[in-house]
Amino acid sequence: MPLNEGPRQTGERRLSVNPFYGPANPLGDMAEAPPTHRLPDQPMAPVTAHQLVRDELMLDGNARLNLATFVTTWMEPEAGVLMAECRDKNMIDKDEYPRTAELERRCVAMLADLWHAPDPAAAVGCSTTGSSEACMLAGMALKRRWARRNADRYPGARPNLVMGVNVQVCWEKFCNFWEVEARLVPMEGERFHLDPQAAAELCDENTIGVVGILGSTFDGSYEPVAELCAALDAVQERTGLDIPVHVDGASGAMVAPFLDEDLVWDFRLPRVASINTSGHKYGLVYPGVGWALWRDAEALPEELVFRVNYLGGDMPTFALNFSRPGAQVVAQYYTFLRLGRDGYRAVQQAARDVATGMAGRIEALGDFRLLTRGDELPVFAFTTAPDVTAYDVFDVSRRLRESGWLVPAYTFPANREDLSVLRVVCRNGFSADLAELLTQDLERLLPELRRQQRPFTRDKGAATSFHH
């Protein structure tokens, strides 16, 4: 969450109130406009407060047209009703809300079965506020397991975590907050994610684990988790180092089980110790809910688990956050129950069909080169063709915003800072009709863009509308 600063100006601005928003006598209570950066002196009518906030929020972008976000922007009305009924239930109070706690437990069991845990009943897991918290928890478990195995050297030795430079920023935060060295595998040529052999070569006796990304946010591609595990098997044979793998499946862990059933990436690989996903991404739930699972109790050190009394019994908990609403967990269970395997397969296939179809139409325009085609995550990235010099991806992103479309343009990290791309995330609710409208708007803009003398972008860093 970004840090917010207070008002920079010295003079205080006040909100403008339409007299008709007030009570029956518009010259009564609402004669004085409320301040913006301090509490008003007096209360106001709820309809007035509602209208003031709503008017300001009209300037936000339309979430359904936001093709930058992976986060769910549409759910069924029935799910919304359930969430409204459960938003006052505190997830941490498991003894007071035992049925909500039971639904959380069922979701963990369903995910353990979906991800082929050796014994789903023995797998351990928890809900989180999203994948960022889930990754923090998984990283803490990796570090604590490594520290236990190296008690004779730690805290003198400095632990490290190996991952691709394309990881989500939460992994950089984990390494910073928990004092772990981040060892990053750079991009090379047309490889935009981790290389298994390069990752293995960065490992040593201080490596707490390696992170594999099932669905890179940069381009939607899957990292080769099975090949990564094989490379680490070879490391163990050569050196004796047993290095676990965590799969960050923020998006892909809710896509691959339904659309890529033959792809082996999960607990079927013995080296995979833990997996996370975002229920609020392709899990199809409003933010924020995530899930973290470990293949068995041994993979999650007992000393990290807190226990609370639950209906006279023992309820283990593992989380960074404390109080949070039960609404999202209930919505996740509703969605699992509502769709089942076949329903999830249909929804994710529809999103992939939209992505691949739209990618093909954009490629056919001739001005762009595809990096990915949406055939893994329903996400694709593209850049301008080599012969396009009049405009760049930042010009395209800026012009599409005029029609309400939020399509991020950004530069890649080391060693491909030279590459700037656009990325389209296709989610449930972004239909083939909307994709066609976006393609038509892009095609309509091309003649004007081609007539430019040069790209308008001076500072690509400042122009980047996607900061990962």
How would you explain this protein's 3D organization?
- With 468 residues, the chain is of the alpha/beta class.
- The chain has twelve helices and 13 strands.
- α3 runs parallel beside α9.
- It is globular.
Low-confidence stretches: none
How much of the sequence lies in strands comes to: 5-15%
Number of strands: 13
Q: Give the radius of gyration.
A: 24 Å
State the helix count. 12
Sequence of secondary-structure elements: HHHEHEHEHEHEHEEEEHEEHEEHH
Strand adjacency order, main sheet:
1-7-6-5-4-2-3
**Average pLDDT score:** 90
Estimated helix fraction: 25-40%
Q: What gross morphology would you assign?
A: globular
Taking the sheet with the most strands, its summary is:
7 strands, mixed
Structural class: alpha/beta
Query: End-to-end span in angstroms?
Result: 12 Å
Summarize the structure.
By secondary structure, the chain is α/β, with parallel strands linked by helices.
Any descriptors?
468 residues; seven-stranded mixed β-sheet; four-stranded antiparallel β-sheet; globular
Describe the SSE topology.
Layout: H1 46-57, H2 77-86, H3 98-114, E1 124-128, H4 131-149, E2 160-164, H5 169-177, E3 181-185, H6 196-201, E4 207-213, H7 225-239, E5 245-248, H8 256-259, E6 272-278, E7 290-294, E8 306-310, E9 313-317, H9 327-364, E10 368-370, E11 379-384, H10 393-401, E12 409-411, E13 420-425, H11 432-450, H12 460-463
